[in-house]
Amino acid sequence: MPILQPIVNLAELLARKGITDVVVSPGSRSAPLTLAVARHPQLRVRVMADERSAGFVALGMAQQTKRPVAVICTSGSAVYNLAPAVAEAFFQQIPLLLLTADRPHEWLHQLDGQTMDQVGVYGPQVKRSYDLPADYHHPDSRWFMERTVQEAITLTQLQPAGPVHVNVPLREPFYPNADEPFQYEPVRLITTLTAQPSLSAETWHELLDEWERSERILIAVGQLPRDPALLTVLGKISNELGVPIVGEIISNLPVNDHFITHTDTFLSGIGAKTADALRPDLLITLGNSFLTRNLKTFFRQYPARRHWHLQPTVDRITDSFQSLTTLIPADPLAFLEKLFADLDYQRFLQGDDDDETNEYLNQWQSINRRAARLVEQTLSQPNQPLTDWSAVQLVLEQLPERSILHLANSMPVRYANLCGLSEQQHISVAANRGVSGIDGCLSTAVGAALATDQIVTLLIGDVAFFYDRNAFWSAPVPANLRVILLNNDSGHIFRMIDGPGKQPELETYFETPHGYTARNTASDAHVAYQACDSLASLQSLLPDFFQPSDQAKLLELSTDKIQNQSQFATYKSKVKQIPKQL
Question: Which HAMAP family does the annotation name (predicted)?
Fold first, then answer.
């Protein structure tokens, strides 16, 4: 047996446990791991030279496929460069398997190169950390390695999903000789069965009684992948039970007649009387983080009297609105489908009138319509210049149906949230709102495009783009990727918020003007490039831009930060004019 045969066998374990995609960053210490996955016929291996990009590319792939993606890197500081993606994956609950090569531990603090303490390096940002043995001669070591890797793969997927770290110390020699056999041996699989938590009949009836005692019920949806079945049951609960369904673009709630999606506009500076009228008796929340401060502030300042939160596990108490009364361990879709079915049947038995007035729902929908009109008026002024916001609206309107939209952090995700997407488009929305950094937004979209044949469109600002342009380093960039770059030559968000926007140091210490364009970056990466500086030009370019092609495309929009600021200031002044009373 070759001395590194157990490492070769790890690749077989990955494939047998359902992993199909691996992202590798080149390195010498990690060579045995790299060769093992690269030569395996059932593994698709993507090479990313920059570990920071590699981690986010893997995240984007796993975000799209809902399956764990393995990441391999060499020892030393390379391991730390995965950390931003690891943190995002942890808080966004994305399954990643991190395989970090290491020197044997006896060489730590011995002035040897590319050596640091890697055991537990990601701290609490991973679900668990494992450390494999550096010597495999004893059968127990090989048994331990195979058991540990299977446990790690399983753990990435158990709810809540997330990243798991396996540190792999490796001794030389790393490379097999030409005449040395290289084959994958049979591995023993360990299957871990899962079960959904269930509520007792007594508990279920207590929840139904609490629902019945509540006059004003509201459901708020945090960040979730698009799920047509969930959208269907939420629509039924709203239409037939008179319950407002509140969410944002990252909740994948479309703009329609019943969902409440313009809260960032109408909850800004809301009057106390109106706020109290909108306050629910029972608030039900599901999903991950919420995007906008106005929505979070409203629910904290005007807390519900009772608050249920739905999540598959109870490993942590999620109480982001400081009002939680009941944590319900349940899959949100299954819970809401059963809840609606039971309530609908109960209404049938009681002979409730389907046409009864839903005053509470009407209040939310009425003020939501006002906010939508205000946004529309802001963006429909005559002789409108090309601004970041007007560009976002036009891009969202022109997106191909059933495509995927990635929203970079800072202003793009906020502009998109103010506009929304229509129900008829069937767009799936993703964004790195776990820890909400600008690092990795481009890489994540690249990863998503690698994992699907659908068009993947990324809306990204200039600082986030240039910060992460190593996502384009390892060719080829997937041909189904479309990048809309909003280049205002600054960290635009700092001009929009009151704190830094009023400081004399704004441009030097917050906005970071740079003078760059993406033309050379696109050329280096063999990405089709176009530039645009007017709404009319953008309107004419978008239809062809979204057409299928044999190469990725980047459309760079040059906007003026002063015009962007002026438009947003006009919008905020109009927000203040929204009637404070219902």
Answer: MenD
The two structure tokens encoding residue 86:
């690891």
Task: Evaluate the CA torsion angle 377, 383, 385, 386 in order and state its sign.
Answer: positive
Percentage with pLDDT > 70 across the chain: 96
Q: Which one, of 413, 408, 405, lies nearest residue 457 by Cα?
A: 405
Separation between Cα atoms, residue 40 and residue 42, nearest integer Å: 6
Neighbours of 573 (CB within 10 A): 10
pLDDT tens digits, residue range 151-173?
A: 999 999 999 999 999 999 999 88
The one-letter amino acid code at 228 reads P
Give the integer Cα–Cα distance in Å for 126 and 161: 10
DSSP class of 178: T
The dihedral formed by the CA atoms of 377, 381, 386 and 392, expressed in degrees to the nearest 10? 10
* pLDDT of the residue at 492: 66
- Helix H or strand E segment including 33: helix 31-38
Burial 20-59 (b: 16+ CB within 10 A, else e): bbbbbbbbebbbbbbbbbeebeebebbebebbbbbbbbbb
Tokens of 373: 């009109």
> CB burial class (10 A; 0-12, 13-18, 19+) of residue 151?
middle
CB count within 10 Å of CB 348 equals 10
Mean pLDDT of the chain: 93
State the amino acid at position 531 in one-letter form.
Answer: A
Task: List, in sequence order, every beta strand (DSSP E) within 370-517.
Answer: 404-407, 428-431, 456-461, 481-487
- Residue 143 tokens, joined: 């048994």
In sequence order, the β-bridge partners of residue 23 are 46, 71
Two tokens at 70?
A: 């393995």
Half-sphere exposure of residue 408: CA atoms within 13 angstroms, side-chain side: 31
Comparing C-alpha atoms, which of 326, 312, 319, 323 is closest to residue 210?
326
Contacts of 370 (CB under 8 A, 6+ apart): 266, 578, 579
Which domains does the chain show, CATH number per domain? 5-169 (3.40.50.970), 201-368 (3.40.50.1220), 382-575 (3.40.50.970)
Of the two residues 565 and 35, the one the predictor is more confident about is 35
Residue 1: the pLDDT is 40
The yes-or-no verdict on residue 378 having pLDDT over 50 is: yes
Q: Is the model's pLDDT at 384 over the cut of 90?
A: no
At 383, list the tokens.
Answer: 């002789």
Cα separation, 582 vs 579, whole angstroms? 7
Other C-beta atoms closer than 10 Å to the C-beta of 388 total: 24
Distances (CA, A) of 31 to 76, 99, 166, 339, 370: 14, 12, 16, 53, 60
Residue from 195, 198, 215, 240 nearest 342 by CA:
240
pLDDT at 288 over 90: yes
CB-based contact 233:333 (threshold 8 Å)? yes
**Angstrom distance (rounded) from CA 132 to CA 148:** 8
Q: By the 8 A CB rule, do 307 and 321 touch?
A: yes
